[in-house]
Amino acid sequence: MSLLTPNLAVELSDVSYQITKANSVGVFEIAVSKNLANHFNFDLSSKPVAGTSGGYVAHAKGQQTGFALIGQGKSVQYKNDIVIAVRGTNFTSLNDLSTDARAATSSTERGSLVHAGFNSVFESMKNELSHYINLVPAGATLHCVGHSLGGAIANLIADWAKQKLANVKLYTIGAPKVGFADFALKNTNSLGQENIFRCTKGCDPVPMVPVWPFVHAPYNGYEYRVDNSGFINPLKHRVKYYKQNMLGNDWGSYQRIVSFNSFKRVTLDARFSHQVSRDLFWMNRLSEALLTLLRQLGGGIANRIQSGISNGLNFYDQIAMVLSDVSIHNATSTGQLQGLLAHMLVFSGQIGREVKELSFEFISWVFKKTLEVVSRLAREALS
Asked: Is the pTM here over 0.85, yes or no?
């Protein structure tokens, strides 16, 4: 099977941003490098694949913009392959920003819970995409590519297309999480870890969101860290900065790391909370510590949280309610909870604030402050 090089994957993600609207005479135009033009043809005479982003109003009005660029392989390396490059957030579009912000869930065809905003855009494109999926001949490869919001939608396209095609590869760049663990696990098993190229920067906040229980595919798998940056810098989310780090032809030249593992045992000691920095490493570590604590409290905890969600409670408020129940505490779990909250306080900028109580109100407040920081950083990156 053929494989897109890092420089082709990131250029395709960049070029897809050019297809939002036609020019003044109604024609769609793109500018591509000689390297990309040597490998793929892009016929825009029939317009790019359109999609609808945003909420109910946008869908009711049928407001559509160009969302996916289709390329047909012509070089020896990519002969008969099809590439679907999905654009990310259009910063001038309130609809796109609304789609990114929605954290409600909806179900895929296979019954997995995914981000409702991403899924609604994908569903608005599905019929048109079916035509191109059917063009992929036996033995050829479908490449699904995208940056940011485009990466999330490319993930949904790849998951759906894999039910019809033998060879599907996914390349996401600075993309947010798409669904819960069930989706990530099915997606990983279906595509195969070796066919998922999730590219991140250590300073990019967008891969942090939505927060757990959303998780990335590959499930508990590795990502390609394309630079060595640390502290969060929302500006670096832009695709042009990824292009600067993805000039090569070899995926082996990038570091493969497992930044989050849902089964990893992480316990945090409040005495060392001063070590926390606001970066992707600590965001993942806080999630792993929370999962460790919930597992230790027993299987019934998950059912209580699920019950609270079905009754309309906020997910993290329900976790706070469970964790504040003194009947489930022992010396070990109490110490771990205090350590987790202390680290969250530093992460969220509440330096100097001590954990003096484990009430529902206090735990819920700490969660809220932590999530506010993550959401704000992601919004800055997307706008």
From this structure: yes
Position of tokens 């597992």?
295
- Asked whether the beta carbons of 148 and 382 are under 8 A apart, the reply is yes
- The three-state (H, E, C) secondary structure of 312-371, written as one string: CCCHHHHHHHHHCCHHHCCHHHHHHHHHHHHHHHHHCCCCCCCCCCCCHHHHHHHHHHHH
Residue with tokens 């329900």: 318
Angstrom distance (rounded) from CA 276 to CA 367:
16
Residue showing tokens 């209580």: 304
Region of residue 139 (left: phi > 0; alpha: psi -120 to 50; beta: else): left
In terms of DSSP bridges, do strands 142-147 and 82-86 run parallel, antiparallel, or are they unpaired? parallel
* Separation between Cα atoms, residue 237 and residue 380, nearest integer Å: 9
Q: Tens digits of per-residue pLDDT, 299-355?
A: 666 555 655 444 445 778 888 988 888 777 787 889 999 999 999 999 999 988 999
Q: Which of these ranges, 34-38, 98-102, 258-262, 297-301, has the smallest mean pLDDT?
A: 98-102
User: For residues 146 and 90, what is the distance between their CA atoms, to the nearest angstrom?
Assistant: 13
Tokens of 218: 């590959």
CB 169 within 8 A of CB 175: no
Separation of alpha carbons 370 and 120, rounded Å: 28
Beta bridge partners of 315: none
Alpha carbon of residue 119 to chain centroid: 12
Q: Is 48 exposed, middle or buried (0-12, 13-18, 19+ CB in 10 A)?
A: buried
Span 120-161, pLDDT tens digits = 899 999 999 998 998 899 889 999 999 999 999 999 999 999
Alpha helices per DSSP H over the chain = 6-15, 34-39, 56-61, 94-101, 116-133, 149-161, 181-191, 239-245, 280-296, 300-310, 315-323, 331-347, 360-382
φ and ψ at residue 354, rounded to 5 degrees: -100, 155
**Pick from 151, 191, 157, 188: nearest CA to 172:** 151
